[in-house]
Model the fold of this input.
Amino acid sequence: MARIFIKDLQPGMIIEDQIFHLTAKDLRSSTNGSLYMSLTLADRTGPVNARMWQASEELYKALPQDGFVRVKGRTENYKGLLQFIVDAIRPIDGEAINVDDFLPTTDKDIDAMYKRVVEILRTIKDKNLLFLIKQFIDDKELMERFRKAPAAIAMHHACIGGLLEHTLGVMELALALAPRYPQLNNDLVLAGAFLHDIGKTKELAWDTSLKYTDSGQFIGHLVMGAMMIEQKSIQTQKDLGQPVPVKLVQTLQHMIISHHGSHEFGAAKLPMTVEALVLHHLDDIDAKINMIQTQFSNADSETEWKYIKSMERMFLNPNLDKSDETIKE
Done:
C-alpha cells in the first residue's frame, strides 16, 4: 500500500498496512473492565490519537515506548477530531524504515540559509568577536549538526533544519532593528543571535525521532552554549597567541544564559545588558510567530480561531483572507 501521511488522513479511511512512529502508549481499563490501549502515532506531518480496543497486557508490553510499528485499522471522527482505530499492530525494526518519512524537515533551503548566516556574520566589525565566531564556523562537525538540528522537540521550529531556520530568523530581525537603535552594539547582538541556541546541537538528538540527549536533560542548552563559548575562546587564544577579552566572553555568555528572559522560562540570569534584552525579545518574536503559524498549518484551512495551549489564549488564524474586513458580531 502506498505511503499515506497523517496530514492526508480523513474520517472513514481503511488503512491496510502502514508504518508509524509510536510516540506514546498507555494501557487502560474501559467501564466494562476490558483493556484498551491509548496510543499516539506520528510521522513527519504530525501526530494522531489512536485507540486499540480488546487489547492485552502482553501486546502492550511488546510495543516500544518510542519506536516504529506496523499498523492496520481505520479512521473516524470522534468529537470533531480525527481518531485512528487500530485493528492490528506489531513492532518493527527501525532499520527497516525510511527515516525521512518520520522526521519533519524545514521547507526552506538549508544550504541557502547557512550561506546567509555566514554572510551576515561577516558584517561583524569587532575582530575579537570575528575570531571567536570563526572557531565555531571552522568546526565542520559542529556546523553539520547546526544545519540539521531542530530548534525544539515540539514548541517551535521542531524539524530538521529548524535550529538553522530559527537562528537566521533572529539574525535577520537583528539586522532590521539595528538602524532604529544605532546605540546598540549590533556586533554583540548578531553574535548572540548566532550562538543563542548553539547548545541545542548537543541538547537534542534527531536519529529516528526528535528527543533530548542525556546531557540535554541534565544541563540544558543555555549552560551548554555558555560552556561552548568558553571552550572556543580558549582555542582562539591558542590560535592567536593572545586572549579574547574576558569581559567580551562573559558578556556573550550572559546573553546566552539570559535569553529566555525570566527564571520561570529557564533563564539562569535575567537580561542585564540592552543587547541581552534585545536578543531575548527577538528570539521570542521569531519563536512565537512560528509557533502560531505551525498550529494553524495543522488545523482546518477554514478554522478562524484556535486555542494555543502553550500561550494560554485564543488566536486568530493568520492565514485567513485579509481582504474581508467585516467584523463579526
